Each structure stands twice: as C-alpha cells, then as structure tokens.
Amino acid sequence: MKMKKFVAAALAGCLAVSLAACGSSASTSTGSTGETAEAATEASATGAGITVQLGPNPETLDPALNNTVDGANTIITIFEPLLLIDENNEVIPGQAESYTVSEDGLTWTFTMRDGLKWSDGTDLTAKDFEYSLKRLANPDTAAPYAETAVGMIAGFEEAQGNPDADGNQTTTPNPDALQVTASEDGKTLTIVLSYPCSYFDKLAAFASLSPVQQATVEANGDAWCTSPETFVSNGPYKITEWVPSERIVLSKNENYVGGWDTSKIVTDTITLLLLEDSSAAYAAYNTGEALLIKDVPTDEIPSLTKAEDGGDFYTDATLGTYYISLNDQREPFTDPLVRKALSLAIDREYVANVIMQGTYSPAYNLVGPGIVDAEDGTYFMDNANGGEPYISEDYEANLEEAKSLLAEAGYPNGEGFPTITYSANDSGYHIPVAEYLQTAWGELGITVNIEKVEWSSFTSQRRAGDFDISRNGWLMDYNDASNMLELFTTGNGNNDGKYSNPDFDAAIEASKVADKTEHFAKLHEAEDILMEDMGCIPVAYYNDFWLQSPSLQGTWHSPYGYWYLQYAYVAE
Description:
By secondary structure, the chain is an alpha+beta fold. The protein is built from 18 helices and 22 strands. It has helices at about 10-20, 35-45, 70-80, 125-135, 145-150, 155-160, 200-205, 215-220, 280-285, 335-345, 350-355, 380-385, 395-410, 430-440, 455-465, 480-485, 500-510, 515-535; strands at about 30, 50-55, 85, 90-95, 95-100, 105-110, 180, 190, 235-245, 245-250, 270-275, 290-295, 315-325, 360, 420-425, 450, 470-475, 535-550, 550-555, 555, 565, 570. The strands form 5 sheets. Strands 2, 9, 10, 11, 12, 13, 14, 15, 16, 17 and 18 form an 11-stranded mixed β-sheet that branches. A 4-stranded antiparallel β-sheet has the order 5-6-8-7, with helices on one face. The chain has a 3-stranded antiparallel β-sheet with strand order 1-20-21. A hairpin with a 5-residue loop joins strand 5 (about 95-100) and strand 6 (about 105-110). Helix 10 (about 335-345) runs antiparallel to helix 13 and helix 17 runs antiparallel to helix 18 (about 515-535). The longest helix has 18 residues, at about 515-535. It is globular, with a radius of gyration of 23 Å.
C-alpha cells in the first residue's frame, strides 16, 4: 500500500497506525512509481534532466563517513549496497542477486550479480565489499556508523583493537579480523555474525555499507570523494559536476548493473541545488528551476495548499526524534539533576504545535511512534515505562519540578549557574526553537546564548563535542529501537553528547540476542536508564515536509527520511 499524505494536525494521532514494521511499511509516493517504463520514457523525452533541492553542501559523500540524511539522499542515488529497500519498504536484491542465512542465523552468504561494474567501467566483485566493510570497521577510518552497521559481525572488537570500557584500545587494531570473506572468484561474500541479528538484511541495504573502490581511495586519500574526476561509484547515477555551495550534477551511469529497473531510469541528469537558505530554495521552486525542495520557509507554511487538498505541499511521517544533546562531559551538564531540570522546563506541546506549526509531534519518550516491539503487533513506545510517558505532559507541574531540581543541584533560581551556549544550524525550525529555549530556560534563571553554525561545519563540531548544548536528531535506519538507543553507548561514533553509563551499556549489550522477547526487554531497560539520566532531551517526533511540482513523477519518500529519485521523470 501507499502511505497517505496526512494533514499536519492529524499526524500525531495517525502516525502509530500508519507505520508498520520495516519490510512492510509503505513509503509516500508522489507521482506514480507504477507508471510503465514506456510511459515514463515518453513523458521524459522532451526533458533531459530534473533539478531538486534536498539540502546544502554535504559534509561528506563517503558512505563510511556520512551520518546525515542530506548526504544519504545523494549516496542512495549514486551507490548501491548488497541489498536495496524499494518503494514499499521491502528488501530487494541490489548488487547481490540473492542471499542465504544459516539455520543458526550467524552465517549470511551473498551471491553477487554477474557483470557488476564501477562507474569507470572496471569490474566490481565481492572483494570490493570485503574491502569496504573492513574499512568501515577500521578505527583509522573513524566511521561514525561502524558499531551500528558492522558491530554484530564476528571479529569487530578485534578489528577495533579490543577497546576497554572507556573506549581505549588494548590491542593493535586488526580490520582483517572482521569475518567478511569474498570467494576467490569474487562471486560470493560470506559474513559471519557474532550473534543472530534479525534485521541484518536491512543493514545490508544501508547506505553506509555501500562499496567504495579501493584503488581510488588509496590513490586519492580523503579527497577521493570530493571531485567528479576521482569519484567512482556503482549506483544508477554518478557525479559529473560539483560546484560547492551551488550544485551537484548526477548523470546516468552507463555502466550500472544492479537491483533498480534500468528501463525506469529515464532521466539523463539530476541536478541537486546546494542551498541552505530556505528562502533561496523557495525562490528556486517558484521560478520553476527546482521541481522539489526539502527546505520550505516555515513562515510560508500556513499559506500552502496540502497535497491531499490538491496542492503541492506534502507532509509525511518519519521514524525519528528531534532531541537536544547536552555535553555530558562539561560542567554543569555532568549532573543528571541539571539535565532533568532543563528537560522539564520545555513546553513540548508549544514547541511542536506553535513553533513547529503542527508539522512535528511533541515527544515525551526518546523512541517514538511507529517503532515496533516484539512480534505481538505492539509498538515500543506504548510498552515503555509501564505504558506511561517518561516525561509528564503537565507542563506547569514540570516547570515547578524543574525549579526544585535546579535548586537541589545547587543553583536556586539559577544562582551561580554559568552562562551557556546553544548551538544550531540556521534552517527549518532550529533557530526559532533555540530562541524559545532561551526564554524557557530563562524561567529557571539561566542565561543562554545562541550560536548559529554553518551546516558545512555543524555536524563535525557537534561530533567533536565542541559545544555546551546542541540541537540534534535521529532518523531511524531500520525499524528496531536499538538503532536509536545504541547511539548513546560509550564510544559510539554518533554519541555527540558523550553520555556514558555502564548500566546502560550493559543493557544494550544484553539485548544482542536471538530471543526477541529478551532483546526488546533489554532495550526497554536501556531506555529506562537513559531517560532517568536524561542523557539527551527529546523534544519532538519528526515529520518531513516539502514542496513538489505535480510534473515531477516517479519519486517516493521513505519513513526513514530519504527521497528516491532513481525513477524520477518530468511528465508533460
């Protein structure tokens, strides 16, 4: 089925019944992906290309290093992993034509398609995947997704240097210890897991597990993925032009062999406008330069006509949470009482329904709607904390408790509390939310400065821990609560706030079992610990909204926040 395009105000109530488990939940189709190849070809015959805006300059387009949706939206168009997720959110063959799983769930064997090629025309085999997965596990790569994406593969700890509880290596890292082995003829790839992972097929379709060409990486170092001249990929499109802060041009990859239906890949070029300013994106849309823009000026939203009412403004539920990272290694955020006080002083209903104009939903737990629990048809959020939200919906009572907690922490009425800085990039609702927090925390007697950071440096600054408090968020990569909760384990590459609790780490580790009841029970235990510590502050549940011309057909948007453009074309 296709997901309905919801009215913003109805999102909160409808989300839980609109999303199902990964592998069966639907994506929102704008235009018809069911058009015949002949119709698509005829419709696009007079137009060789399309232009869209999905974000600003990407921090990186190296699949192993990217950890943003903006970068991933490009990566899924120019790379292809072993498997793919289609428009119905079902796993389909990608570079691998098939795979088998051993009875104990530990050995996954992928059989590669015949005739696979890189965009430069050279052969691609299972050996390229062996290299790429081991590169991902190599601590020298510093891949933020390493633990999430390949941490369940046998030999990962040895590959990482057997880090201790504080993340310090105790042995020399040995990436070759990762149990990923290509056959001599390059036809099969065998991956041995250290424990059964029921969602490993979803991970095999994850952008971070896309292959990279060893010769290109070794010849050009980190610069291999910054210029069309050295950028070698394996997806249906390839980069042929890149003007920083202006555009990236993708052209059909004439050497593509893979899981996407090449008869439906009919558009010659896809131009990505690299715009951070939503007003500039809106202008590009209104002039017809861009047929789709992700960054819509928030002050224009009330005047837009929703798609279900015949307009071009789309709102779609996604699996993710908008949250605040506190630098848990800096005073005074090392104190859980302070973190709780800051959380309780936030009126989430006001943030979601007034500042965010009902396009997001208020968050009282970290793991939000649509994330499944054990195989009983229930949702993780509904079963969390005994069925009660971790954060009360009674804002007035919360504010009084916040003042008491701050006094208990030694800062009555904010006395003696240092001036703090809130960091955010200037797009969407980020700065309006920051200005609200400035006022809300002012109610506690706390002075807050706002730091606007360019997107090109924002995520790297946050990842380095160079902040007091920072806006943050996470869109799920697969439908299992572990994908969000594992972010907060000690040493995780996406643990921006550097939260660390041995009990939390132990609960996550204990969740890595084949028994699904035990798996989810331990994940609930982990969220209990995280929310008691207030290791991060959940604010709202994500929904994506965008403008799309009715002439742009064949695209779809997934509940993981991705836009798929492989089959895009312009209808006359």
